[in-house]
Design brief:
The chain has 79 residues and is mainly α. The chain has one domain. This is Anti-sigma factor.
Amino acid sequence: MKQAFTQEDLIAYIYGEADRDQIKATEAALAADPLLVHQLTELVEAQASLPKVLFTPRRRIVKAILRYARGEPAPQLCY
């Protein structure tokens, strides 16, 4: 039985989100299907071209999350 791979399957493989069975199936399919290799290559190139963005949450948001995790009352976050 030939498995059809979606873009989502290949993206999960690229980002390391595929489980062991999915990885084995993907690698076997890649070994047998040059078109799938081409699709994977395009996705990897697209991933590499994405800008590297770092997000830093505001200190008050981090404090609010920590208070919530400790079970303390939630502060007013909006002004």
